[in-house]
Amino acid sequence: MSSQALDKFTELESRIARTIELVTAVRREKESALRELSTARKQIDRLEHEIEELRQERDLIKNKVESLLENLSALTEESLV
Question: Taking the model in full, what pTM does it have?
């Protein structure tokens, strides 16, 4: 094998090794990103559930306050009569 052919083969071997390293690094990054995505999705689901509970609680309190205001209004009207 000539020196030039050997140099080309060595360069090709080096490029393949770098490519393998890059592919391995990209796969690790992808796995990490997928784990982060899964965690974020779980957090979003939890927060959406919490928001829904808070909305229900807000509606309940709103209804109670409206009822109390109506009762107070009725008492005020009765005391004026």
Answer: 0.64
Q: What residue has token string 């205001």?
A: 69
Instruction: Give the alpha-carbon dihedral of 8, 14, 1, 5, to 10 degrees.
Output: 0
User: How far is residue 64's CA from residue 56's CA, in Å, rounded to a whole number?
Assistant: 12
Give the separation between CA 53 and CA 45, rounded to whole angstroms: 12
Phi and psi at 2, nearest 5°, equal: -75, 165
Backbone conformation region of residue 67, classed left if phi is above 0, alpha if psi is from -120 to 50, else beta: alpha
Q: Tokens 């807000």: give the residue.
A: 58
Element housing 70 (H / E): helix 3-80
How confident is the model over 45-71, as pLDDT tens digits? 999 999 999 999 999 999 999 999 999
